Each structure stands twice: as C-alpha cells, then as structure tokens.
Amino acid sequence: MATKDAEALEKMKILEERIKAPSIWGRVPCGVRFEDLQDWRYDDAIRLLKKHYLTEEGEITYRSMKIIDDKEGTDEFVHNVRIWMKDKMSIAAVKEGTDKLVGVLIMRIQEKSAFSRTFSRVKLTHNPLYSTVMKFYNEVEKPVNVYDTLEVRRYFKIYILALKSRYRHRGIGKELLKAAIALSSSANVPAIAGIFTTARLQTIATELGFHKLNEIYYIRYLIDGEIVFYDTGLGNYGAAMMAYRIPNVDEPQELSTHQSSRFAISMPGMEVDQGANRGGPASATPEHTPVSKK
C-alpha cells in the first residue's frame, strides 16, 4: 500500500512539473531556445540588464545618460522592470545545455479600456536622469494611438529586448521578436508594438512587418537648447514607435479579463478588472521604455 501511495505521489509530482514547465516559443541553430520568462530567472534578468543593456552596446538613451553610474536612477529602472516581468508575459533566451539566460524580451498586454482613463497617461518618476529618458519616450509615443491605427482593442507592448554582448549580431534578436509574435498569436492578441532605438533593430522589425508610426531624431531632441542623447553610435539617428498587426489573429468580441489565465484571455460574461493589464500606470510606473539591442 505504501509503495502504491509513493508511486502515485511521484506521478503527481511529475505531472505538476510538466504543468509548470515553460512554453517553448522557438529555437535557433546556435543552441538558444526561447521560453516563458519564469520568476526564478528574474534576478538573472536584472543582472543581465545592468551589464548588457544599460552599458556597453546596450540601450542608447540609458547609456548616453549614464544611468548605470547613478544608483538611484538604476534602482528606479530595476523597480519598474520587476513590475513589468510580474505579468509573466515575457520571454527568456536560454542557452541549450547550460540553461543559462542570454537574453530577455519583456512585454505586457495593453488594453484600450485602460488607455482611455485619465491616469493611464500619468508617469511618476523621481530620479532626474531616469525622468529625462522617460519624457523622451513619452514624446515618441504620445502622438500615436496604436488602438485606432491598427483597429485593435489590445496589443502586446515590448518594453525591453536585450542580449548578452557575445550573442548579438547572430540573428537571435530577430528570432526573439518572432517568438514574441508567436506568443501574441497564441494569446489571441492581434498586434505588437514598441519603441525601437537602433537602426539595426528598426531594420529587423521592418523585415518582420512592423511599420513606423512615429520617430524622433536624437539630434533634434533638445533640452535648454542642448542635445540630450549625444552618444548614439554610428547610423542610429532616432527612436521610432513601430507596430505590427498580426495577420489572421482576431480578438474575442467581448474583452473581459479571465484572472486565472496567463494570457488574460477574455471570457464572455465576466467583469473587467481595469488594473490587471494596464501596462504600468495603475502602479504609477513609466510606460515608455525603449526596445534595444539585437
């Protein structure tokens, strides 16, 4: 009897592990797979972003403002990244064999019902360097209404795309974006958008079907008559808001949030929780964060 109970318990443990296993959204021949970013990887993701996103060839605006040298600015960035990751809709790039994190794509669902609220455009930031970056991205995104332009009621917004330096320029960034599109399609979310800050990533996004909705050139963005982002790198002229309407993906007719679903799939007859997938404003976090290196 004890043996049977032990066997049953072992089978339940195996089943539970299978249920908890992350979905795989793609693989590349160089030995990298794309899977759900799980919470036990969050600390690794933060370390990767500090080393490979805020510095080196990482995100242009943060590097230009030297956010990494300002503890308060870095802490505010990390705080908001942790909030974005908690939606459990982001993707990890993982090295096969070692299971080491080599990249992340962080994104959340944006709802038109939340967008229409007054406070959905309120961004509370404290550190002056971080605030400067957020204000710039607000200017890039502010003229754009993704919902009306793409005729959708919700979309996935990409906040960050980052890779370890030695994994760049190998096509992994493009495949990571493809994985994000696959995840979006699986969730019946018909569009995906983000602010892309480098010419290389803008080219990749264009190849995948993204279109520029608005762009601000770095050299034309001035504060008190001075250029703000001066260390942008060769060929990187501006930050562009880009979006892609995914073909053959239709939204449910009624958008009411199913709280138990990872993708917040809408179920008829259920009440909408306006704060569940707001993309930042409900918790007073900045919504305008760039996508970076490939």
Report what the structure shows.
The chain has 294 residues and is of the alpha+beta class. It has a single domain, classed as 3-Layer(aba) Sandwich (Aminopeptidase). Helix content is 33%, strand content 21%. It is built from nine helices and eleven strands. Strands 1, 2, 3, 4, 5, 6, 7, 10 and 11 form a nine-stranded mixed β-sheet that branches. A two-stranded antiparallel ribbon has the order 8-9. The longest helix has 19 residues, at 2-20. The protein is globular, with a radius of gyration of 20 Å. It starts with a helix and ends with a strand. Residues 14-19, 118-122, 257-261 and 263-286 have low confidence and may be disordered.
Can you count the beta strands? 11
Oligomeric description of these chains: single chain
pLDDT averaged residue by residue: 83
Name of the CATH superfamily: Gcn5-related N-acetyltransferase (GNAT)
- The helix-strand sequence is HEEHHHEEHHHEHEHEEEEE
Sum up the overall morphology in one term.
Answer: globular
Which CATH class is shown?
Answer: Alpha Beta
Weakly predicted, low-confidence segments: 14-19, 118-122, 257-261, 263-286
Number of helices: 9
| Helix content range | 25-40%
Query: In CATH terms, what is the architecture?
Result: 3-Layer(aba) Sandwich
Let me know the largest β-sheet.
Answer: 9 strands, mixed
* Domains (count): 1
Strand content: 15-25%
Distance between the termini: 56 Å
